[in-house]
Specification:
The structure is a single chain. This protein has 188 residues and is mainly alpha-helical. The protein has one domain. α4 packs parallel to α6. It is globular.
């Protein structure tokens, strides 16, 4: 646990420094393209089902309902110009580096559920997955991302809970980079 937190802190600091200019450019472009803030703060479920504010670059219009994208009737109708690009390459996730820095998230763990995803939260709680810090990426993300139904996501999260190690975390981070470059498993 201590090694994981030290790794998270060092990697978050390094990435914030390296990516600060690209993040400022993205924020500026969002402000030019769309009314409203560049950063979207969403209520997410963290360790032991506590709610925290997770940061993302805003890729959706201001009137978008706060539900999982797969539950929207026409999610593409809510995207701002360029929002699909940011989502496909996971650039909208970059502000989560600050959540990692604050200790609200880890680089690897189950993706934090939306505050209203009761079915996902209930299944994770039943399997003790709620005891893990949520991750920027996780075992479920590298095994399907948006393509996975909730029970399958939970089974991948449970596998991670029972097999987590520093080596597995490094493997998941490597697979994440590959999946993001290939744009695999992302709907919108």
């Amino acid at each position: 646990m201590i090694l994981k937190r030290i790794f998270d802190l060092i990697l978050a600091l390094v990435l914030i420094v390296l990516l600060s200019i690209p993040m400022l450019v993205i924020a500026g472009l969002i402000k030019l393209i769309s009314k409203g803030p560049a950063i979207f703060w969403t209520d997410r479920v963290g360790v032991n089902n506590g709610i925290f504010k997770m940061a993302k670059f805003r890729t959706m219009k201001l009137n978008t309902p706060q539900v999982a994208t797969h539950l929207m009737e026409n999610p593409k109708d809510y995207l701002i110009s360029g929002g699909g690009f940011l989502r496909k390459y996971s650039l909208d996730e970059l502000p989560q580096l600050f959540n990692v820095l604050k200790g609200q998230m880890s680089f690897v763990g189950p993706r934090p559920a939306l505050f209203n995803q009761d079915d996902l939260v209930e299944l994770r709680t039943k399997e003790n997955i709620h005891t893990l810090a949520p991750g920027v990426t996780g075992w479920a993300q590298v095994n399907g991302r948006d393509d996975l139904p909730i029970p399958v996501k939970v089974s991948f999260d449970e596998y991670y809970l029972n097999h987590r190690s520093f080596a597995l975390d490094l493997y998941i981070i490597l697979l994440t980079v590959i999946k993001v470059i290939k744009r695999e498993g992302v709907w919108y």
